[in-house]
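PROTEIN DESIGN WORKSHEET
SECTION A - STRUCTURE
LENGTH: 100
TOKENS:
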């Protein structure tokens, strides 16, 4: 996924050769800086891979959790509505005997 979007790899940076000129940069300084860039690239790539794996794991967890949840029996019915209906049925069946 990521490799399709990134133009450079750590290996590309490591193997890059620059032409030198009379008033060019010091090759040692350039090499040190490129080494830092390579380390950052490798760290970034590793972090992205870990996050992609975690993302896949969490998506699978969410999918599994949604499958385990029972579908509601009646649209718009909540536990409060069910308890209220039970209470009304008890009052109707048992009348005032229930609260004595």
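SECTION B - SEQUENCE
RESIDUE ASSIGNMENT:
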């Amino acid at each position: 996924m990521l490799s399709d979007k990134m133009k450079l790899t750590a290996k590309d940076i490591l193997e890059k050769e620059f032409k030198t000129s009379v008033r060019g940069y010091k090759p040692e300084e350039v090499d040190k800086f490129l080494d830092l860039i390579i380390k950052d690239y490798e760290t970034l790539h590793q972090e992205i891979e870990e996050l992609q794996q975690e993302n896949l794991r969490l998506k699978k967890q969410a999918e599994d959790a949604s499958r385990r949840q029972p579908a509601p029996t009646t649209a718009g019915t909540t536990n409060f509505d069910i308890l209220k209906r039970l209470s009304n049925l008890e009052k109707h069946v048992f009348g005032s005997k229930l609260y004595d």
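SECTION C - NOTES
The radius of gyration is 33 Å.
Residues 27-68 form the longest helix (42 residues).
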